[in-house]
Design brief:
Length: 78
């Protein structure tokens, strides 16, 4: 028996260029890269918050679920 791969068990939505959420996520990503290139960390942080919110919508997560994920990630990174 092989080892289970987490990506086989995670539903990752495919990019849909006709979905406004995906288009918005693409634009936010481009803005984040540009801000990072210019070393504008304040803008990067704000854009990352927007990316989290749009991503949560794509994945169908509630505000509470997003908060819990962020809390868990913060605990893991400390």
């Amino acid at each position: 028996m092989g080892s289970p791969h987490v990506l086989e068990n995670v539903n990752i939505p495919k990019f849909d260029p006709d979905n406004d959420l995906y288009v918005n996520l693409t634009e936010l990503s481009e803005r984040a890269h540009e801000s990072a290139k210019n070393d504008d960390q304040e803008s990067v942080q704000a854009i990352e918050e927007e990316i989290d919110e749009v991503s949560a919508q794509i994945w169908g997560l509630s505000d509470d679920e997003l908060k819990e994920i962020k809390l868990c990630l913060k605990e893991v990174s400390e």
